[in-house]
Amino acid sequence: MTGAGTLWMVIGLGSQLVFSGRFLMQWIYSEWRRESSIPMSFWYASAAGSVGLLAYAVERRDPVFIAGQATGLLVYCRNIQLRWREARAGGTEAAR
């Protein structure tokens, strides 16, 4: 594997760890609140992991992987936008 190949493998694996770790964040947050909740860190990790995985998919030239990550990224960004709007409108916990 070349230096560039190793770098992309590290980016891909690191991004997958961030993306997968969001479920642990959500679980801990829900346990802490004693209700099913999705913290802002879940959406940030979703977006960050998705950006890294999308870059990896583009490098690998995998159209199926690219389409999946690009679509998911739109959803994550929209959820972040909605939560920011909620926080500004009501001063709620939405930005957490």
Brief synopsis:
Helix content is 83%, strand content 0%. The chain has helices at 3-33, 40-60, 63-90.
Range of helix content: over 70%
Count the domains: 1
Low-pLDDT residue intervals, each spanning 5 or more residues: none
Gap from first CA to last CA: 41 Å
Instruction: Give the overall shape.
Output: elongated
Briefly note the structural class of the backbone: mainly alpha
Describe it for me?
This protein is 83% helix and 0% strand. By secondary structure, the chain is mainly α. It has one domain (3-95). α1 packs antiparallel against α2 (40-60). The mean pLDDT is 90.
Topology:
Elements lengths: L2 H31 L6 H21 L2 H28 L6
Helix pairs in contact: 1-2, 2-3
Looking at this protein, list some descriptive labels.
elongated, 3 helices, single chain, mainly alpha, 96 residues
